[in-house]
Amino acid sequence: MDARIREFRDGIFALRTRRFGTVAELMIEALFRFHRSRNQFHDRYDAVENKRIEIKFSTVMKENDARITRENLIQQCLNANVANRALNSTDIYKYPFDCNIQQVKRAEFDVLYYGLFFADRIAIFRMTSDEVLSCPGYSDFQHKGNEGEGQFHLNQKTIGWHLENKFVQWLTYEELYGLFT
C-alpha cells in the first residue's frame, strides 16, 4: 500500500460515527449505483429493485488486552494507534475483535449492506431485513425501551457465518480511493 493510500485508510479509521458512516454510505452508493434515500429512516434507495437500503459498517481493531490504569496510561495511549490496532483480514482468527452492527431498525429497510473496514481491505456483506432475524447473535432490542431496534456482533465466533452466507465482495483501499478520483 503506497503512502497516499495508507494516509487515506488511516484517515477513514480516524473518523468518528456520522462522518465514518457517510464514507460507508457513499462507498455503497458508488459501488451499486444506489440513489439518495427517500426519507431519513434509511440510507439509500435501489430504484431498480424498488428497495430501501440501510448501510452499517465498522472498523476492525484488535481487542485491548489491558485496562487503562494510572501505571499504564501513557503506554496504552501510545499503543492505541491504527498501525498497532487495525486488524488485517488475514488475521481474523489470530486476534480477538468485536464489531457491533447496531441501531438496526428492520422495519425501516428492505436490504442491509454491512461490513468491516480491515487494515488491508474492506469486507462487504448483504442481507434482507427478514434474514437479519437468523443472523447469529442478533438481538431485536438494543436499549431498554427501544422496540424494533436491534444489533449483532461480528467477531471471531460469527465472522465465518457471515463470510459463508452473506459475503458480497472484498474492496481494497486503492479501489475505494479510485471510486472518488
Describe the structure.
This protein is of the alpha+beta class. It contains six helices and nine strands; from the N terminus they run H-H-E-E-E-H-H-E-E-E-E-E-H-E-H. The chain has one domain (3-179). Helix content is 29%, strand content 30%. A six-stranded mixed β-sheet has the order 1-2-3-5-6-9. Strand 1 (35-36) and strand 2 (44-46) form a beta hairpin. It is globular and about 55 Å long. It starts with a helix and ends with a helix.
List keywords for this structure.
single chain; alpha+beta; 6-stranded mixed sheet; 3-stranded antiparallel sheet; 6 helices
Helix and strand topology:
Blueprint: H1 3-14, H2 17-32, E1 35-36, E2 44-46, E3 51-59, H3 73-79, H4 82-85, E4 98-104, E5 111-117, E6 121-128, E7 139-141, E8 147-155, H5 159-165, E9 167-172, H6 173-179
Parallel strand pairs: 3-5
Antiparallel strand pairs: 1-2, 2-3, 4-8, 5-6, 6-9, 7-8
Briefly say what this structure is.
This protein has 181 residues and is of the alpha+beta class.
